[in-house]
Every structure is written in C-alpha cells, then in structure tokens.
Write a structure and sequence with these properties.
Length: 276
C-alpha cells in the first residue's frame, strides 16, 4: 500500500510546507510542483491565478497524487474553489489551517497577517480569522518575495523593508484600536525571514509577538487525514528520496534556491511545461 500526496506552489516557497510534511508523514510519496516560470502569483489577477493553479493541480493528479496540498498562500486564497471544482481528489489549502493556528495562539484575539498583494486584497485570511472571532490587520509585503529570492535573508535592505512594513501594520492596528499578540506569515517565502522579523518585532513591541506560519499546522492536518493509511505503512524514516520534484523554469535555480527552503539538497528536478 502506498500514498502519494501532491504539493503545489508557485515556486520554491512551498518547500517550507514539504519540509514540515516529511517528518509527519514518513513512508508517503510526495510529488512537488513549483510553477517557477509563472511566479510571482502574488501580483496577478484572480482569473490568472486560478487558471495557473488549476493546470498545476491537474498535472499533479496525472502524476498520481491522491491528495493535493496547495502550499501557496496566494493560490489558496484566490483559487481554492476553482482547484476543488477541477480536481477529483481532496484538496487542502493553507488559509484555514493558518487561521486555526492563529486562533490557538492569540490571547488578545488581535492578529497581524502579512502576505502578497493578491492574498491581502482577497481578505481570505481576514475572513478565515473572523470565523474564529479574531480581529485582523492585513499588510501586503510585495518586496519580501524578490528579496528572499535574491538571497537577501539577513541583508540590511531587507531589515529596512521589514521595519517599514511592520511599522505600517502596527500603526494601522493601533489606529483600529487593536493589540496584536500574534503575527501570521501568510506567504510561503516569509518563514525564511522569521529571524529578521523576530528581531524587528522585538524592537517595536514590549511583549514578544508569537510568529506562526501555516506549514506545521497544514502538515498536521494532512497527517490526520491519512492517519489510518499511516498506521498501515511500514515504519520508515522521513526521506527526500520519497519526493519527486517538477519545476516549470530553470532546474538549476530550483535546486539551489529550493535547497534553502527545504533545508537539504535537492539533487533531481524535472522540467515541465504546463499548458495554459
Ligand atoms: N507562493 C506565494 C505565496 O505563498 C508567494 C510567491 C508568489 O507570489 O508567487 O503567496
């Protein structure tokens, strides 16, 4: 008996979600698709994001995925219904799991959410958080994705940008009378900026803010879905050998950048072209 899970992202960032999935689902086969040729999704329209994401989901199904994890926050926020309508297998996005994690973490019930422009303008996180009774300030951080892709993780320019974004978000929260105690990273790239964001927040807030990203909670939700199957699988250590990687743009770039997101080397990536 085997289980194959498809993981989709607009590029490399979803590897932070795969990184969380691997230890939770040992023995499971993963097929990862990064639509790196069409990244960024975060600056595109709903119709374009949905068209791209549906073609990616269909590809993963063809590759044998029995379950799809939409690791991309932007695709989860704007295209989950379209993907579910087009797919024959269960589909899980990261918005609801992220909101659930914020709900579990926040005591003040006020949350800051950072995301791409498309994610923030969709208000998907605000709506999902409101369903848990949380108040939210959403802040678009469009410069973070290119800075991370440039490798400027601890760069002074990135620190300045983080300071500007977080100051704006904090001012808006204060103007709305909110006291956020939780920061939700609503983009696959932002976990790589976690340390930098932590030190920026430490300078701004007397009390430390809790930073959460949806990778761990999403992985836990997938593990719950497959709990019966996981009991049947022979015991095995989590291994990247169980992963097959596809990218729509440069294989070399996917290997070098992707390895930083996954936290281990990616030796083999297959290039594919997705039909529009
Ligand atoms: N993967 C996207 C997300 O999580 C970020 C990169 C992009 O804009 O495509 O929102």
């Amino acid at each position: 008996m085997s289980v194959t899970i498809g993981v989709f992202d607009s590029g490399f960032g979803g590897l932070t979600v795969l990184r969380a999935l691997l230890p939770q689902l040992p023995g499971v086969d993963f097929v990862y698709l990064g639509d790196s040729a069409r990244l960024p999704y975060g600056s595109k329209s709903q119709a374009t994001i949905a068209r791209y994401a549906v073609s990616a989901a269909k590809f993963l199904e063809q590759e044998g995925a029995e379950f799809l994890v939409i690791a991309c926050n932007t695709a989860s926020a704007l295209a989950l219904d379209d993907i579910r309508a087009a797919a024959r297998v269960p589909v899980l996005g990261v918005i609801e799991t992220g909101a659930a994690a914020a709900n579990a973490a926040s005591i003040t019930r006020d949350v800051l959410v950072l995301g791409t422009t498309a994610t923030v303008e969709s208000h998907a996180y605000a709506n999902a958080c409101a369903a848990h009774g949380l108040r939210v300030v959403e802040k678009a951080c469009p410069l973070f994705v290119p800075l991370v892709e440039e490798g400027w993780i601890h760069h002074p320019v990135t620190a300045d940008v983080a300071n500007i974004y977080l100051t704006e978000a904090l001012n808006r929260a204060r103007a709305a009378g909110l006291s956020p105690d939780t920061l939700l990273l609503g983009c696959t790239h932002y976990p790589l900026l976690r340390e930098l964001l932590e030190s920026t927040l430490d300078r701004m807030f007397a009390e430390p803010l809790q930073i959460i990203d949806s990778a761990g909670v999403t992985a836990a939700a997938v593990a719950r879905h497959f709990s019966a199957e996981l009991r049947e699988l022979p015991p095995s250590a989590p291994s990247i050998a169980d992963c097959t990687f596809f990218a729509t743009d440069s294989v070399a770039k996917f290997q070098s950048l992707g390895s930083q997101f996954l936290g281990q080397p990616i030796d083999h990536v297959t290039h594919i072209d997705l039909e529009e």
